[in-house]
Design a protein that fits this description.
alpha+beta; Immunoglobulin-like; four-stranded mixed sheet; four-stranded antiparallel sheet; elongated
Length: 452
C-alpha cells in the first residue's frame, strides 16, 4: 500500500529537522571545535523547542506536547552553557594554539627590518613591527657600534624641502672652533698628506697637498687655484639638504651652523665623485670604493645621532645591509684640528720652511683639461704642469676600458696629452690620473672630463 500524505510529510520533516541539526553541528565544529558543536546544536534545539511550546508538538523530533517542548528548551540551554564554558577566552579558536606562559619573545630578521614576536598565556602569537629595528638582532649590536646607534635613530618619512637654502646652515666654512682658520682649510690639513701652507697665515691656509680619496681609493693632487681647487672638495657626509628634510628644520641656526662645520660630518674627497653624490642618502648613493662603505655609513649614523636627525625606512635598511657585513664597526669621533703641521711657502715656488716630520718633497704635478665637456668623437687635452723634462703619463679611465698616453714636459714644465672622446662615454665623468717622474722623484695628480 502507498503511504498516506501525512506519513510522507512526517518523513520529509524528519529529514529536514535532523539534517539541519547535523549541519549546525558541522558548522560549529569547523568554526570553534567542540564548543562550536555544542553552542550551534543548542541554538537549533532552542528553536525547535520554541516551536513545540507554541504549536504543542513537533512530530519529527518526538516532541508530542508542551511538556516535551519545555524539556527540550532546558536541554538547549544546557548545551549552550557547556559550549560556552569550552570556548577559549578572548575569542581565540583552537586552530591558534595557545602559547606557553614561559615562552620568550624572539626577533625575526626580515628583508625590511626586524619583527618582534611575543606570546602570552592562552593567547595566539602576534607579530608586531619594531619601530626602530634594523635587520640584525639587538643581541648582535654591541654597545658603541654603529649598528647599536642605528637602532636608536627615529624612523620617519622625508619632510618637504620647502624653505631649504645653504644660508639656513650659517656662513659657509665658518670658524666655529675659533682657532683663527676656516673649516675648509682645517679639513684639508686633517685629510691631506705632504701639504704646503701659505706663510703668514698662522699655519692655516693650504696651498697644495696629496689626498688618498676615501670614496674612490685614488690618489689626488690638490693645488689651490680657481681652476684646480675643485679637484678636491669637502663633502658633508650627511648632506645639508638631506639633514634639512630629516629634522634639521627644527634645530636652531646655531646648531645647524655647527652641523655644517662639524669635522665629524666633513671629509676631503674627489670633486667629481662628490658632485655625483649630490644630496643623496645611503639608500640612493654609496661610495664607489666598497671597502670604505662601512666607515661611510657609520659616520652618517654618528652625525644623525649627534644632531637628533631621523632616517627613512629605505635609508635605515640600506645602512643595516652594509653594517651587517661589519657588525663591529665603531662610531667615529672627531677631535680638534691643530694649526700648522706642514711646510710653509711664501708664493708659487720652492717651500722655505720644511716640516722635520714631512716626507721627501714629491715632484710638482698639476693637471687641468683644455675642455672639460668635449663633444663625441672630438679630442680633449690634459694639460700637466710639472718640472721641465719630466716624463708624464696620463691614464683616462673610461666605463669599460682605460687608455694611457705619455709625453715629456717642455722647457716651461708643461705637457699636453690628447685623448679621443668616444660616444660610449657621453654623459659619464672620465677620471684622468697623471704621474710624473724626473731624477728619481715622482709626483701625481688628477683631473676629469665629462663628454657631452
Amino acid at each position: 500500500m502507498n503511504a498516506s500524505p501525512a506519513a510522507a510529510r512526517l518523513r520529509g520533516g524528519a529529514w529536514l529537522g535532523w539534517g539541519g541539526l547535523a549541519l549546525c553541528a558541522l558548522l560549529g565544529a569547523a568554526s570553534s571545535g567542540v564548543s562550536g558543536v555544542l553552542v550551534l546544536s543548542g541554538l537549533f534545539v532552542l528553536v525547535v523547542s520554541a516551536v513545540a511550546l507554541v504549536r504543542g508538538r513537533v512530530l519529527w523530533a518526538r516532541l508530542r506536547g508542551r511538556a516535551a517542548g519545555g524539556a527540550a528548551l532546558v536541554t538547549s540551554l544546557v548545551l549552550m552553557g557547556i559550549g560556552g564554558a569550552f570556548a577559549p577566552p578572548g575569542g581565540a579558536t583552537p586552530a591558534a594554539a595557545p602559547s606557553s606562559p614561559t615562552q620568550p619573545s624572539r626577533s625575526l630578521t626580515t628583508g625590511s627590518g626586524t619583527a618582534t614576536t611575543t606570546a602570552g598565556p592562552m593567547s595566539s602569537a602576534t607579530t608586531q613591527p619594531s619601530a626602530t629595528a634594523a635587520s640584525p638582532s639587538s643581541s648582535a649590536a654591541a654597545q658603541g657600534t654603529a649598528l647599536a646607534a642605528l637602532r636608536g635613530l627615529p624612523v620617519k618619512g622625508r619632510a618637504p624641502k620647502t624653505g631649504y637654502s645653504r644660508e639656513q646652515f650659517g656662513q659657509a666654512w665658518a670658524d666655529v672652533d675659533r682657532n683663527g682658520c676656516d673649516t675648509r682649510n682645517d679639513i684639508l690639513r686633517r685629510d691631506l698628506t705632504s701639504y704646503v701652507l701659505k706663510v703668514g697665515t698662522n699655519g692655516c691656509l693650504v696651498l697644495s697637498g696629496t689626498l688618498k680619496d676615501p670614496y674612490t681609493g685614488r690618489t689626488i693632487g690638490f693645488v689651490r687655484g680657481a681652476a684646480t681647487s675643485e679637484a678636491v672638495q669637502i663633502d658633508h657626509v650627511v648632506a645639508l639638504s638631506d639633514a634639512w628634510q630629516k629634522g634639521a628644520q627644527q634645530l636652531s641656526l646655531t646648531t645647524r651652523t655647527a652641523l655644517a662645520n662639524d669635522p665629524l660630518n666633513l671629509l676631503a674627497v674627489d670633486g667629481p665623485t662628490n658632485d655625483a653624490k649630490g644630496d643623496g642618502d645611503a639608500a640612493t648613493w654609496l661610495p664607489p670604493s666598497k671597502s670604505y662603505r662601512c666607515a661611510y655609513v657609520a659616520r652618517q649614523v654618528a652625525v644623525k645621532a649627534r644632531y637628533h636627525l631621523w632616517v627613512t625606512t629605505a635609508e635605515r635598511d640600506a645602512i643595516a645591509r652594509i653594517l651587517t657585513g661589519c657588525p663591529g664597526q665603531r662610531l667615529p669621533t672627531a677631535a680638534a684640528i691643530p694649526l700648522g703641521g706642514g711646510r710653509t711657502q711664501a708664493a708659487a715656488g720652492v717651500a722655505t720652511t720644511p716640516d722635520p716630520t714631512a716626507r721627501s718633497a714629491s715632484l710638482t704635478c698639476r693637471a687641468t683639461m683644455s675642455n672639460t665637456a668635449p663633444s663625441q668623437y672630438s679630442t680633449t687635452d690634459v694639460i700637466v704642469t710639472t718640472t721641465a723634462g719630466a716624463h708624464v703619463s696620463a691614464t683616462a679611465r673610461y666605463k669599460t676600458t682605460t687608455t694611457t698616453n705619455a709625453g715629456i714636459a717642455g722647457p716651461g714644465g708643461t705637457a699636453q696629452i690628447a685623448f679621443r672622446v668616444s660616444r660610449a662615454t657621453i654623459g659619464r665623468a672620465v677620471p684622468v690620473d697623471v704621474t710624473v717622474s724626473s731624477g728619481g722623484r715622482t709626483g701625481s695628480c688628477s683631473t676629469s672630463f665629462t663628454p657631452r
